Amino acid sequence: MDTTEPLKHEDTQDKMDPAVGASGDDGDSLGTAAPDSPMGKQAPGDGPSSEASEGTQDPEDEYTDILGNKTLLKKVLTAGTGPRPNMQERVKIILLQEMPELGTTLPEQTLEFVLGQGDVAQALDLAVALMNIGEKAQVISGYQYMYGEVGMPPDVPAKTNFKLTVTLLEKKKERGNYYFRRKEFERSINSYSFALKVLEPENLRKEGADNLQKALEFRAIVQCNNSAAFFKLEAYEPARKAAEESIKLLASHTKAYIRLGQAQEKLGNADKAIVAYKKALEQDATNKWLHSELSRLTKVNHNKKKDQREMYSKMFWGSNPPDMSNSGKAKPSKAEPVNWLKLGGLGFIGFILTGLASFGIQRYLNQS
Fold it and tell me: Which SUPFAM superfamilies does the record cross-reference, listed alphabetically (predicted)?
């Protein structure tokens, strides 16, 4: 059977909690065939027959072979109507654990855990990732995807296979938001970065068009949250870039424009911040905070530009700049009256000089 050690052992937790597994280190990797298959030891009617794997069973009763080696199987009992959870999102489930070989059923319980972080049995991590919100599924799991080779004495014997009935109730936001609320911004950025890697376009090529669009929209939300975390750390340039990436993916995302505006203002780009806030108002015209912030920033920007004009005016004109009132135009100075006496005197002097010059030229010509 293809198995791995599913869990980290926590002595403080209930030993029957599926979030607590065997503490041995001898588990096989996922690619190793195991000696026992959970299908070979189950009670009659608890799982698919050998014919089912050949496709002869009713399609509604078919199991999904999660790992491709019949060691972890999943069958939908009640279809879900919501989306699938993403890695690093917190999920809430109802779980019923059965041990068919022993004829034992453990008490039903409600669990919350972060998907993909190894907080619970690996069977749950793998199966829940393939469920939709509201879905109820049956999971047949090999022993090492649950409590391992040593089991959990005295309640779970060694190498005990399980049949699980899982109902996915809801999913919550990625782990990054948890750290953000705790003001652990560096850790939230790390978590968001992990989610962005999972949501890289090349990793989503096999998804259908609808799922791909949903994934890209979720990536936009993660980028927006990433921008907020960078902003809290006063890393305004990365905050700006993350907000812009979010807008590229989801142009109608109001919060992304707000994050962009906040970052641009801190970077000294008030005009660009105003543009971003106006874009946000196009998406949410009744947002009172946005209206207030835009009004504040517009006034600040106006006063800043006025101060700049006064500074440049002093640099050019000195302490006595021209009067630029009256719609920005300088008042024309009053024309002085024409002094005809001065003009006449200048004309007479010019006439005398011209006559003397002519007399001198004529005399020079006669002598030659």
Answer: FKBP-like, TPR-like
